[in-house]
Amino acid sequence: VQRVRFSPGVAARPHFHPEDRHIVVLKGTWYTGIGEDFDMNKTVPLKAGSYMKHPAKAVHFDGAKDEEVIVQITGIGPGTTTLVKP
Questions:
Q1: pLDDT of residue 78 exceeding 90
Q2: Could you give the CA distance from residue 10 to residue 70 in angstroms, rounded to a whole number?
Q3: pTM metric for this prediction
Q4: Could you give the dihedral angle defined by the CA atoms of residues 26, 18, 84 and 71, in that order, rounded to the nearest 10 degrees?
Q5: Which CA distances in Å does 60 have to 48, 65, 79?
Q6: Contact (CB, 8 A) for 59 and 83
């Protein structure tokens, strides 16, 4: 289990994980998108209390827009992240 804090305007570029990850938004509105092209305007907003699953090897990006966001991520470790375009 990890808790991740995104400061306003901070986002993770397109990446994937080898294992499923389960995310719960604890604070703020978290934005998530799919695919290799990073575009925060093409994300889905998830408010505090929302849940989503990032399936293993699915390319995605996510982050905060104008407020601090805290998410809790659960999965099987050790977890790794592979950037699509390092």
A1: no
A2: 12
A3: 0.91
A4: 0
A5: 20, 16, 16
A6: no
